[in-house]
Amino acid sequence: MRTLILASTSSARRALMDGLGLPYRAESPGVEEDVSPTLSAREAVQVLAGRKAKAVHARHPEAWVLGADQLVEVQGEVLSKPPDREAAKRQLGKLLGQTHDICTGVCLLGPGGHIAEAVEVSRLTFYPVRDEELERYLDLGEWQGCAGSYRVEGAGQALLARLEGDRTNVQGLPMLTVVRMLRDAGFPFFERPEPLKP
């Protein structure tokens, strides 16, 4: 049986993978997430997704490893995870009333040097909201651990005026892309789990 490892401990990514019903486990890649500031968001997420997948694959060379990373780009500026509430407020201030791109890089590594890579981009437009509404949203803490400081799978969807692209991409893992990669790699879907041996 093939071993599939998600090189991420993100709860949003795990929830999306759980929905596939495909056996897998999650493992922290434990890598440095700094990249050159000269890279665009699209380039940076590809580098980081590959870095995460390679780190876990080096520990489990016979496994299939799926790595992913996500960044937001608004008017040429790349936004990563905010370190604190004040940074989150600044990020959201740049997004409210504006249109931005959310970019997710995905890398699938398998035994024998198999590699598949892709970058998925979705475009979002946020409502312009008043300061007191922004403060209430920040109070929810959804900004923690999220590039761009919001979660569309949570209360943050109320910020969303328009979405172009794959919604699962915005949630952290573009499942149309992931399924295509797994199918191309020969993964079977909809199989019944094997009963545990006594």
UniProtKB/TrEMBL annotation:
It is found in: Cytoplasm. Keywords: Cytoplasm, Hydrolase, Nucleotide metabolism. The active site is at D69 (proton acceptor). Its cofactor is a divalent metal cation. SUPFAM superfamilies: ITPase-like. It is an enzyme of class 3 (hydrolase). It comes from the Bacteria. Its main location: cytoplasm. Its EC number is 3.6.1.9. It catalyses: a ribonucleoside 5'-triphosphate + H2O = a ribonucleoside 5'-phosphate + diphosphate + H(+); a 2'-deoxyribonucleoside 5'-triphosphate + H2O = a 2'-deoxyribonucleoside 5'-phosphate + diphosphate + H(+). InterPro entries: ITPase-like_fam, Maf-like. PANTHER family: BIFUNCTIONAL DTTP/UTP PYROPHOSPHATASE/METHYLTRANSFERASE PROTEIN-RELATED, BIFUNCTIONAL DTTP_UTP PYROPHOSPHATASE_METHYLTRANSFERASE PROTEIN-RELATED. Belongs to the Maf family. Nucleoside triphosphate pyrophosphatase. May have a dual role in cell division arrest and in preventing the incorporation of modified nucleotides into cellular nucleic acids. This is Nucleoside triphosphate pyrophosphatase. It comes from Hyalangium rubrum.
